[in-house]
Structures are given as structure tokens and as C-alpha cells.
User: Fold 4-amino-4-deoxychorismate lyase from Labedella gwakjiensis.
Amino acid sequence: MSNPSAARVFFLSPLPADAEPDDAAIAASIAESDARDPRLSVLDLGASRGDGIFETLGVIDGRAHGIEDHLGRLVRSARMLDLPAPHLGQWRAAMERAVASLPSTGQGSLKIVLTRGIEGSGTPTAWIVARASTSDFAERRTGIRVVTLDRGWPLDVADRAPWLLAGAKTLSYAVNMAAIREAKRREADDALFVSSDGFALEGPTSSLLVRFGDTIVTPSTDGGILPGTTQAAIYRWLESEGRLAEYDTVPAARLAEADAAWFVSSVRLAAPITAIDDRQLAIDRDLTDGMNAMLLSR
Ligand code: PLP
Assistant:
């Protein structure tokens, strides 16, 4: 857990994606303040409708991880929500300043947010919150218990109903948070969403990896799930290690045959799964330690 009152916030006056500002103009478009300062209007559509997008990056020893992967996904989410394309140079500069506000050792996070802005203004609101973490991330070693929860959408939801924004990283995370509360009511730590036609998808804040024998499988991202940046980094590493890593549909019934499984995400990194519903799973210690060592040191 982190102390939110210690966070710094960096507001951006969003530049058009094709603008060519010099460094001074970019610097002048970013304003730093304390996260407790009242800055967000009650008329902002991000606050009143959850109409916006976000990314969360892990920061380790003064370096933000996966900047380009997260910016790529921000651009993709903006396109899905018909938001103006972000100016990548401005976001990179703002992230650099946000990282510099954090301690040079230890772990933390950047949350970057782009909303549709104040109703009627047509101008998006954009900011980054930089926060140091005080968690010891014990779940990376001890693991988590998950329960499967029906997401209520079929696997082809993204094609069938793109307006549901399945697979975009929108600010509308109330459903995801409700799923985690339901998992806790069922005495688990986290939820694994399953499609209405019975396929394992993702967690409310993480991607699923499953090992069947020698092969690691993650659910295909065309099933209306978020393409995970941590999963992608782990796949690049697995491939460099000569291991088999595949994208596939994963019928929930097939989880009974899993030899190991993980939830992976930018801040928690790789958390081994020790139970899916009533089925216990052993922790694959070597692979878990290998993934986390790579994610911490990249
Ligand atoms: N799936 C969902 C729904 C998420 O919200 C997240 C991250 O918050 C992930 C997967 C994992 O993505 P990443 O590894 O880029 O953090």
C-alpha cells in the first residue's frame, strides 16, 4: 500500500498529436502540484461518467518500465473511445518529470489519465500521479487464491458490440473493483473473469498466464481483453529463454489441467496462483522467481 497524500501530480495541457513544440513549450505545458491540491473540476467527464482512459506503470529504482508499451496502449484506448490522440513527446516529458519526483530507489507507480475533459469544452484533461509504494509485494512469493467469475459477455464481444469498449483501459473500473470485492467475499484474493461461453479471460487488474506442461499459454487478446504489457514483456523473455509461449483460447474447464498459473501486471508483477476455485495449484518457484527477477531488472 502507498500513502496517497505523499503523491505528486503533473497536469498536462494536452497538445494535438501532430504539434511540433520545442522543449521549452513542452515544459511549459506541464504543471506540477501536490496530489492533495484541488485541481479537478466536478464537471470533468472523467469524474462524472468515468469517460476517459488510463495506464499504470511500475517504477523501479527511478526507472519507469514499459513506457512505449503503455503509450502504445494509451493511443489504442484513445482511438477506441474517440478521444483526441495523445502527443507522445509531451507524455514522455511529463513521465520523465513524474519519475524524477520519486525516490531513486525502491518501487512506485505512475498513473496516467486522459479524460474527455469538462463537459462541453471539447478539451481533454490529462494528468499523471507519481506515487512511491510501501508494499513488500509478498504475493509475488506466497501467491494468491482466485475465484472464477462470469463476466457476462461472450468471447466475441469486441466484434459483436465494440461500443462496450471491451479491451480498452477506460476509467470505468467500478465493475472490476466490484469483482475483487466479490472474490474477497468468497475468501479469495482476486477474481478471474470467464466469458459467458466458458473461456478464461483475465483478472480485473491483471493478465492470466497458465503453464500446461512445457507450454505457457495466455488468453488471446481478440477475446475482448486488455493486451497486457507485463505479459508481453514476459513473453519476450520466455522466447529469449527458448521456452514455448502461446496465445490461445483457454476453456475454463481446461484450467483443471494447469500445472501452474500466474496473474501478471505492471505494479504487482508476477503473482503465482495457488488456487483457482477449489483446485489447489503448486507454485512453480523457478519460473516465478525468473519472471520477477527479469521484471525487476529490465
Ligand atoms: N487486464 C486488466 C483488465 C488490467 O486492468 C490490467 C492492468 O491494470 C492488466 C490486464 C495487466 O496489464 P499490464 O501488465 O499492462 O499492467
In short: Residues 67-80 form the longest helix (14 residues). The chain has two domains: 4-132, 139-297. The mean pLDDT is 96. The longest strand covers residues 52-60.
